[in-house]
Model the fold of this input.
Amino acid sequence: MHKNGPIALFFHGLVVAFVLAPLVVVCLVAFTPENTLSIPTTSFSLRWFEAIFKHPDFVPSFYNSLWLATLAATISIVLAVPAALAIDRYQFPGRDALNGLFLSPLIIPHLVLGVAFLRLFALIGATGSFAWLVLSHVIIVTPYVMRLVMASFTGMDRSAEQAAMTLGASHMTVFRRITAPMILPGITGGWLLAFINSFDELTMSIFVTSPQTVTLPVRMYMYATESIDPMMAAVSALMIALTAGAMLVIDRAFGLDKILVGEK
Amino acid sequence: MKSRALTPWLLVSPATLLFLGLVVLPLILTVILSFHVYDHSSGIKDGFTVSHYVRVLTDDYYLTIFWRTLRLAALTTLICVLIGAPEAYVLSRMGDPWRSIFLLVIIGPLLVSVVVRAFGWSMLLGSTGLVNQTLRALGLDTVRLLYTETAIVIALVHVMLPFMVIPVWTALQKLDPAVEAAAWSLGASRFTALRRVVLPQVSLGMLSGSLIVFGLSASAFAIPGLLGGRRLKMAATLVYDEYMSELNWPLGAAIAIIVLAANLIIMLGYNRLVETRARRALG
Done:
């Protein structure tokens, strides 16, 4: 009854082709044996993948981004879980304002945040500091964590907590043994979303990274504006492979649509 | 009793301190910076001036870039509605497992870095790229696509499409398919059922999707940076150049504040619109 007609399927095919085209082309060009951006037709080569590891900048930037995203996502969880708990469970003056403040980075363009961080860091002498870069990423990813953690607080059945309370468990025990396990999917999903957003962030980071703290997206952007050779395609292909791998793992574990589209 | 009243404050205080220090304070500092005097030889100087705002809002060079930013963001939003909403509808009518597979295909690219996607388009649209190779193979004239507004819009649509599909998809999930079937059995044509039954239900999803797409497109950086070249600037690349090449921070800050203000005004205006529509929809 709910079959799509031929026109609908044709349209769908075009959309899928449009969505995949640039990613497929990147992956093909990465294997070219030539010096120019061309799709290999006769022979394949891994030389541009080797070139990445010989390039002095890409590998350090990758590790830099990995550390940055791990720290930012973790710190964000540590800050957002108690804050979400307070906002969900308590009535206190300024509650709505704080909720708005924590979600505000979603409506402030990253460009504006980048400019604002740059000004602050310049004034307090923190330009080029990795620690401050981590904190700036915490700001950017916290809204995503807040939303997922809040959703799991609001959606949870509180009778188990009340039962534990009646049986004499302390507040801390109830949180550790009952509440925390129940919101764990929200926390894990939030962490992953935060990690990915931090790892891919470009617009804000390009303002506040220094030569020592350049992240992978910033490095790639700089490289792509200066020179166009197939090495950029090889880096991109690796990124796509990593993302696809991560997507599969997340999808098996939680359902990617749940994390990206939201709870149904 | 007293300690109970303190609990929420203790819980929110670490996050609050960080957000006050790293969102509110830097934004205030940036607003202040945008009113500072700038001198090309000695840099930022103390002293109040509105000259940066006056210059940005009267000089043709800046106005052209603002106008281009608004125009391309609006065009991107329109195309995203025209492609994203029907695509979400087609997806919602698919059977499993195709539905989940294609939903992943459509929204999965969200997780791939924007730089990668922009680079992919620059290869497709370049003078020797796949599009022009195809045109040549078909015996047609090649077209200049890279470093044009067309290239920027194509890549922006590609990046923003998931943000339109997701809210429309979510709205369609709430729609009972039996309602559409009821319209058909009562004699409505497929088109009428779509227009009178499905469309009103998903229009809120389309509105919130448009809001996100417009906001993100208007402040997009990597796409115009890589596909617009040095000459076709949009607001974000303009600010970047003012900061990094011209080193005129106060002027750059003024543009950033204008971008922020425009963004907030549009968001709030749109929210109003969505709320009135929602109220009307609820009767």
Observations:
- Chain B has one domain: 49-282.
- The CA atoms of residues 91 and 99 of chain B lie 6 Å apart.
